[in-house]
Amino acid sequence: MKANVTITLKKGVLDPQGKAIEGALHSLGFDGVENVRQGKLIELELPETDREAARAQVEAMCEKLLANTVIESYRIDLV
Amino acid sequence: MKANVTITLKKGVLDPQGKAIEGALHSLGFDGVENVRQGKLIELELPETDREAARAQVEAMCEKLLANTVIESYRIDLV
């Protein structure tokens, strides 16, 4: 089974990378761009075929490694 | 208008970060995990209200800055 994990910074957490991208876009002439936030997308495949078991496994992966749950939130999409 | 840009490595391009995550997951006991690939998700807001014009602007942002189109492909979702 394939899983897509989207990891984004929680609201209110400062995003220096997003700010840097926003500044660069402005300098390239894209003036009106605002609230640029950068997150991660992790695609993976796991042998589990049962959707609920697969979701539980990916959740455990997020909690243990993929996301820093203090400042990041994650969304799991099973494909 | 809000846009989500998903940037992923093109097929066949080596993904050392993905490999590192895969190895770490294995060492945490998630043995069967395979084909781990890491990409970027960039969320941004632009003042443009016309969807086509907004898509064209975001495409220009991708081509000029957000994606390295030699090794990366991008997908634009207008929200």
TrEMBL record, chains A, B:
Part of the phosphoribosylformylglycinamidine synthase complex involved in the purines biosynthetic pathway. Catalyzes the ATP-dependent conversion of formylglycinamide ribonucleotide (FGAR) and glutamine to yield formylglycinamidine ribonucleotide (FGAM) and glutamate. The FGAM synthase complex is composed of three subunits. PurQ produces an ammonia molecule by converting glutamine to glutamate. PurL transfers the ammonia molecule to FGAR to form FGAM in an ATP-dependent manner. Its main location: cytoplasm. GO terms for cellular component: cytoplasm. GO terms for biological process: 'de novo' IMP biosynthetic process. Belongs to the PurS family. This is Phosphoribosylformylglycinamidine synthase subunit PurS. Its EC number is 6.3.5.3. Pfam families: PurS. It catalyses: N(2)-formyl-N(1)-(5-phospho-beta-D-ribosyl)glycinamide + L-glutamine + ATP + H2O = 2-formamido-N(1)-(5-O-phospho-beta-D-ribosyl)acetamidine + L-glutamate + ADP + phosphate + H(+). The gene is purS. It is found in: Cytoplasm. InterPro entries: PurS, PurS-like_sf. Part of the FGAM synthase complex composed of 1 PurL, 1 PurQ and 2 PurS subunits. Pathway: Purine metabolism; IMP biosynthesis via de novo pathway; 5-amino-1-(5-phospho-D-ribosyl)imidazole from N(2)-formyl-N(1)-(5-phospho-D-ribosyl)glycinamide: step 1/2. HAMAP family: PurS. GO terms for molecular function: ATP binding; phosphoribosylformylglycinamidine synthase activity. Keywords: ATP-binding, Cytoplasm, Ligase, Nucleotide-binding, Purine biosynthesis. It is an enzyme of class 6 (ligase). Transmembrane segments: none annotated.
